[in-house]
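Cross-check.
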Amino acid sequence: MAPSATTLINESQGNAKVGARGVTTSGKKLRVRSYPQFETLEEERLYRKQHLAAAFRIFADRGFDEGVAGHISVRDPILTDHFWLNPLSQHFSQICVSDLILVNEDGDVVEGDEPINAAAFAIHSEIHKARPDVHAACHAHSVYGKAWSVFGKELDMMTQDALRFYKSHAVYDNFGGIVLDREEGIKIAKALGKGKAAILQNHGLLTVGQSVDEAAFWFISLDKTCHAQLLADAASAGSGNKKILIPEEEAVFTHEQVGGPEKGWLAFQGYYDEQMAKTNGSFLK
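Predicted model, tokenized:
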């Protein structure tokens, strides 16, 4: 069956990409917000660091923290082979812009006073190296993500939200303990390929994006999708009812609507706004 939904017409390219409809009764064109344009790279560096700090707070609110496990990185826009990370011993809920650590491609700390997670460097450095289009990566041991990871399977395309990851997620099925070796990072980056997410078997989830906003939203959505899959599988096993998967043509069409980087960036902004309101912007210091 051909998709019954249609694309937006008479909308700006920016609006159309994220499914926004913006025309007033007087004919005025309304534009949805999008990734900012910066006058200097220093301004963009600050923006990336602010949104990275917010992402950690948002992850903490959703229970994605577990001791010192988990990390989010964002590429520096000036020193493009460097990236910013969280300090190893600081809880996600307490991280501010001034706490972030800048490391080079060898894992040496360039700015900051705390050590980083060795596993974070091993994974993130190889992803940033293999994917010049990727400016941010998220990894955490979220409950539903690691529960689903034990099956070593890709997710079923059974909901609209799952289609964000249609032909854009993979499984890394070689669990070898804590990732401390860059060779392991290379293997994870290879498994990720050109996708936006990887399920690390017996471990957790990994997502990437052109912005930290995008990567963080994909992680939130991927964990929810794992949760939905676990519930649906359990219900199916208990009731005998068969899951109805989304046909290929509809999956392709819908992925184009919900799986692009602009949509990922936009979807994160409400979480960022909520964090600003809840903390009075305390993470910006």
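The chain has a mean pLDDT of 93. The CA atoms of residues 213 and 269 lie 7 Å apart. Passed to J.P. for a second look.
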